[in-house]
Amino acid sequence: METITQKLENFQIKYPLEQIAPLESVLFLDIETTGFTANSSSLYMIGTAYYKEGAWYITQFFAHSPVEETAILSSFFQMALQYKYLIHFNGNHFDLPYLCKKCETLGLPYNFDSFLGIDIYKRVSPIKFFLKLPNCKQKTIESFLEINREDTFNGGELIGIYQDYVSAPTDISRDILLRHNFDDMQGMLQILPILSYSDLFDKKVKVKKVQANHYKDYTGKNRQEILMTLTLPSPLPKRISASANECYFSGEGYDASIKVPVYEEELKYFYANYKDYYYLPTEDVALHKSVASFVDKEHRTPASAANCYTRKFSLYLPQWDIVTEPFFKRDYKSKVLFFELTEELKRDRTTFTRYASHILEMISTSY
């Protein structure tokens, strides 16, 4: 077997990884195999990346033939035991189970029970459509972030190259195999800023300013909107915009904003305990029985869930889950809820911070 270590000169990751874990306690991992099943394929390389004494390094454990699997596994785990966090790309589904199965098959006493894991793929896949990505492959994310790599091969093509190398080793095939894994490891460090988009949802944003705007829509009608200026947990590496249900998000770096339409109309507040109410058809309103009992019987009927409401004309903001109460609706079966935009609420940053996260979640799940 062969161990190759390279220092990444003048290299810095562009994501505040230290907010997740101390840099010296983090080990990045990627493996190269001749198949997906540990029992019927060979493990020929384990790539790692780590931070040491102010610099980033990549160390690769390369098996010149399948008989060296035990050697590269033992060397890797002896190194890995000094770390607490493992960062990988879809390693929960492939790399880690594969390595554990290999250890079991070869009778090696190693596992990942003592590590805390961070799967980049797992964090990005839920927001794939929010980012407008066709898939969540590492090379796709590299392309999205405009990261260029020297390697042009995929894992499937490398299987044949490794098999040829085992039969007839050459420096060219060795370099191709090492370059692919090296670019995977360096690329994993370079795509860390993609986690900033995940942080929008996991770490939550904060609203630092709320203002009301007036404008004319495409029909010339006067409209109102709320503009929320946000503080982000980590900088967005590339400008992104997304919208749904007339709500808009835009952000780049540490600057981001959300626009939400303000509706000026009459909405209905539905009482939950409708059996305690009468409905007055003439007034189109429900009154509690303690009050409505004084109304003539011919002008009242027992309220139902659909007509047990009171009406109010005001300014409202939409919500697709109950963020703020009381909530209003246009009709009983309406799925969109609203809450009243009062002068007091305009100064409530805590509520608007919660509301901003709600709008982001709604937009991300609307694709």
Report on the architecture of this protein:
With 367 residues, this protein is α+β, with helices and mostly antiparallel strands. It has 2 domains: 2-199, Nucleotidyltransferase, domain 5 (2-Layer Sandwich); 204-271 and 308-364, no CATH class. Helix content is 28%, strand content 34%. The chain has helices spanning 69-80, 95-106, 120-124, 138-144, 155-167, 171-190, 195-202, 289-292, 343-346, 349-364, and strands spanning 2-8, 26-33, 43-52, 55-62, 85-88, 116-119, 206-216, 222-244, 247-270, 277-280, 285-288, 301-302, 309-319, 337-340. The chain has a 6-stranded mixed sheet with strand order 1-4-3-2-5-6. Strands 7-8-9-13-14 form a 5-stranded antiparallel sheet. The chain has a 3-stranded antiparallel sheet with strand order 11-10-12. Strand 5 (85-88), helix 2 (95-106) and strand 6 form a beta-alpha-beta unit. Helix 5 runs antiparallel to helix 6. The longest helix has 20 residues, at 171-190. The two termini are 48 Å apart. The mean pLDDT is 94.
